[in-house]
Write a structure and sequence with these properties.
478 residues, Transferase(Phosphotransferase), domain 1, 3-stranded antiparallel β-sheet, 15 helices, alpha+beta
Amino acid sequence: MTTNARRVPRLVAETIEAGSDQASRKPPPAVEVNPYLAGEVVGDRYKLVRELGRGGMGVVWVAHSLVLGVDVALKLIRASAAGPAVSSRMAREAHAAARLGHPALVRVFDFGWTSRGDPYLVMELVQGETISALLGRESRVPAIRAVQMLLPIADGLRLAHDKTIVHRDIKPDNIFLAADALGRVQPKLLDFGIAKVGPGPHDAKLTQIGVVLGSPEYMSPEQALGAEDVDQRTDVWSLSVVLYELLTGSIPFRRPNYNALMQAIIRESPKPIAEFAAGDESLWSILSRGLAKEPAERWSTMTEFGEALALWLYEHGIKEDLSGNSIRAVWLDHALSVRSENGEFGTPRGNVSTIPNARNSLSISIATLDALQRRQGRRPVLVALGLGVALGGVAVAALVSSSASETEIPKVSASPSPNAIAAAVRAPALTTPLAAAVTLPTAPPSVSAAAKKTKSSDVPTPARRSASASKKRRDFGF
């Protein structure tokens, strides 16, 4: 099924020509003929195999490394979009991206220029599909799976942010669900082509007439306002828009043209996900904070945003993200240790979205979950102990009852006859093993005395032995 979000083409920016008094819509540029053909060797090292796709600034090819003998993804930047400033910036970004080394970020291996002077990037080649293709096939994604899908991306982005790299173009087309031969899925973030590296304002030369940094539907309000200095909170916004689209099947802001879209992003509020029967109130509170208009009201870092999403999953009994990484190990344990060292415990438990200090509320929630898990871990032991005590009580009760009934069953008179004694000795054992083990060794005193009396009569005395010997001598003629 194809959703409206997939049917509507991406908006093209409206620009104002320099020196003109009225706004005019710039006609779409003519389709450029690709000057590169399959089989051509780029940079003396990479043989172009087939075209993968086209972007706003270039073409991506499958290429074969003549040095390493493996296939790679090679992105060629159009000469019309590139200049000395762009090429220099791309080189710095390629060096920065190559140092990230995170499984959720596509690795950059090489950078150079073709014989025609076009810059190119060489990246790892992955198999799978983009989130955009997934949405085109499935329309929307269940809440737990959607959060599991984006948590690895958030982890990769916080590493990039720690190295002062802001992506600025997060969208479903740039998130790839890579699958290996064993069927394991690893979400990967593509295209750091317009990333902002290092502090300070962006390079104005990169924003040319008709060229917009980022996809309009996923731009943050500060990008829509044309702010010269955006930070990691713009990536928090864009990732929140992607999560919103995964949950609802629709982007939060949709307008028929670029200018109306920018106004909606700046001024209007998105519909709660509950109206789409997606997620719950807790998830919406996390997501709505990521979509706050003012950067100061948003999650201040990707770490905070990821911790809140991880905690939401953890509270729903989910322990791993889509890649099989432990949510506790990646997100919650570190947060718990940091909050504990800072002495942030001891206040009443609160929801992540309702307490102003979200980091403190997160630590309280984690501590509460830990205590709950410890209680749950002790519960089987307590249940087993209680069951053992109960069974012991039943056994003791059965023993007492059997002992009482056993004392009443054998009715032996004070002077029993030999036949009665024999019958009592030969009586069958009780059906209950425990009662038989207790009652069988014990015999009535009268029976014991009679048995002793009977046995004593069988023992020959000296007088009897002498009489018997005399009788034998007479019989044999002695």
